[in-house]
Design a protein that fits this description.
Oligomer: single chain
Number of strands: 11
Helix content: 40-55%
Shape: rod-shaped
Structural class: alpha/beta
Distance between the termini: 87 Å
Length: about 325
């Protein structure tokens, strides 16, 4: 059954007149007559009967008209869906995000995506940077949002839209709080830190090593510093976390930042995608949104006590340079 024949049949049925249908469709009456004949041969029954100067549907014609309309509507809906998908207004996108950005930045991003493309579905994975990079390689994620790592330069496409500061923190009643300090004052303390595979752990280790100090003694190793505020607050342990977590409604109610510039890690925040991987229209739409509004999203969650700094090209460059100087002096 020819879909064009069905489309012509629907117009003829609606107008009830072969001549008017021919005028509307820009076809000759003989051509439309042949169209109806082909359909009647296919279904094995008459579709129209003459009534005066016009034509009306037979019972079989009424059934076919109903089905033809359903088919047309399904085709139109399918076309809209495909068009929306191609434009990124529908489809699916898988986003990875760190815990801090997942809490403060991701809700704004998702709200903007849904407002711009209500048909799009979103899958979210919260994890450490290494886990998210592995998921990108395995194509389980379309993009990751959070710190841009030095290693991303070689393997991934990336774009930064802001800066994050990661600082040493302690319980508000810790003996080191409220004092002028240097990194040497931290040497005897014990810590809550993420695993050595995590970039921020590597950074703080490098800084201690560059200053000729033993590496931080890790008493508790965790994959989520933000889940342990009470533990840190109730012990003498130090930790290393983003200043964005020090809001009074979060860790800031229990923890204080130790003001040591040497141990302040300034890292670019942005998004990372596969360098040579396919990005669906939906994922491209999210990337375009982050390029256009990522800085605005981040500015909306800037918290008291945070400072802006020039965006570093390499996150650990300061520590690495210091490390080289120390080694050269031996």
């Amino acid at each position: 059954m020819d879909l064009r024949d069905l489309a012509y049949f629907e117009v003829i049925a609606d107008l009830g007149h072969m001549g008017r249908a021919a005028d509307k469709l820009g076809r000759t009456q003989p051509a439309l007559t042949k169209c109806i004949q082909r359909l009647e041969e296919t279904v094995g029954a008459d579709l129209f009967e003459r009534t005066g100067r016009g034509i009306t549907l037979t019972r079989v014609g009424e059934v076919l008209l109903s089905r033809a309309r359903r088919m047309r509507e399904a085709m139109e809906e399918s076309l809209r869906e495909v068009t929306d998908f191609a434009a990124g207004a529908a489809g699916h996108v898988a986003i990875g995000c760190g815990a801090t950005m997942g809490e403060y930045l991701l809700p704004q991003i998702c709200r903007a995506i849904i407002g711009d493309a209500p048909g799009l579905t979103i899958e979210i994975q919260i994890g450490m940077s290494g886990v998210l990079r592995a998921a990108l390689r395995e194509r389980a994620l379309d993009l990751a949002i959070g710190p841009v790592l030095p290693s991303d330069e070689q393997e991934f496409r990336h774009e930064a839209f802001g800066i994050d500061e990661v600082v040493v923190v302690a319980a508000k009643n810790h003996p080191l709080c409220g004092k002028p300090l240097t990194i040497n004052d931290l040497a005897s303390s014990k810590w809550v830190l993420p695993a050595r595979s995590v970039a921020m752990r590597q950074w703080i280790d490098n800084v201690f090593e560059a200053h000729g100090l033993p590496l931080p003694v890790v008493q508790i190793e965790t994959n989520s510093i933000t889940t342990l505020p009470k533990l840190i607050a109730d012990t003498a342990l130090l930790s290393f976390t983003s200043t964005r977590n020090l809001h009074p409604l979060r860790l800031g109610s229990q923890l204080d930042r130790l003001m040591i510039d040497t141990t302040t890690m300034r890292r670019p925040l942005g998004f990372v995608t596969r360098r040579d991987g396919y990005l669906s229209p939906a994922a491209q739409r999210v990337v375009a949104l982050l390029k256009a509004k990522g800085r605005d999203f981040l500015d909306q969650i800037t918290l008291p006590g945070m400072t802006e700094a020039p965006m570093p090209g390499v996150i650990v460059s300061r520590a690495e340079r210091a490390h080289k100087r120390v080694r050269q002096s031996h």
